[in-house]
Design brief:
- With about 350 residues, this protein is an alpha/beta fold.
- Helix content is about 45%, strand content about 15%.
- It is built from 13 helices and 7 strands.
- The radius of gyration is 23 Å and the shape is globular.
Length: about 350
Amino acid sequence: MTDITHSTNDNGNSRIKNFTIKKNYSQNWSLYNLAQTKEKLLFLRIINDAVDYLDIPYKYKGNGRPHFLLQDMIKCCCIKVFNCFSSRRTISELQLAYALGYIKTIPHFNSINNYMNNPEITQYFEQLYKILAFPLVEVESIFAIDSTGFSLPHKVKWLEIRLKGKWRYSKDYKKLHIITGVNTNIVTAVKITEGYKHDIKEFEPLVRETAKKFRIKEICADTGYLSRKNCDIAHEIGAIPFILPKKDTRIKSRGSYNWLRMVRLWHDNLELFKQHYHKRSNVESTFSMIKRKFLSFVRSKTDIAQTNELLCKVICHNASVLVNSIFELGIELNFEDYYK
């Protein structure tokens, strides 16, 4: 916000000075501090309750060495990613979970890596982050979509690709596409692709998956998602699209009245359009939260393990958001009320 004042110099002439007033955002620090100090223990409880609710069957048939409980291994993988530790250093954290009764056995550190590379476990990770998002179904109605990259082991770092324009290395990182609520930064749908995959094709699956449980009123996205089809998809689920047009974008509808209405608002009332569109910056905040707390790269070396590790990052992020929501919003967790 810029304000203008007039001052007078030594010769009596008036001159204009510009200065900026910094906007301050309110924060209930007592609740925030309480949430942060109790986050780890509440994370373990939330993950335990959510995984147990999945009710994963035990498939051991009596031949050979008994398998670990899949529920325990899912919890172990999430604990590993939450603490940003290697598998070896995670064992001490698993001892804490074992002492609290959240897991029945403490696996060997190599077993954690083996299960992270198990394709069977992916479906449960995908269910888990959705379960953790549903308690905020009454809180979120405005959503933002975007994607970001995560560096792979022994490859070019994502920041070099993003900031220095080294897009020829698009196979050297994983791309995480998400849709997130702008109030709490909860992630409601995820798609993981190779780095060279374009964003525009991921708009529909992310939006439709979110619309299964959430009432979407607005969808914000950058120019990478701009198309008449995406505007119509937003309208189908009852949402208003705010996708930033390009400078040379034409108002012509070509069969899409929703496109016409959005572009006309951008053309005729840019300030009003920006008020809604700039809520999109919250998805950047979500990426920052995930990368600062759970690292901007993946440790795993295989494609399946990399996908599972990224899903674990989203699970840990959603659990962290729930911890804050318990204290700041008074959310009560009962997964049976949401996941039906």
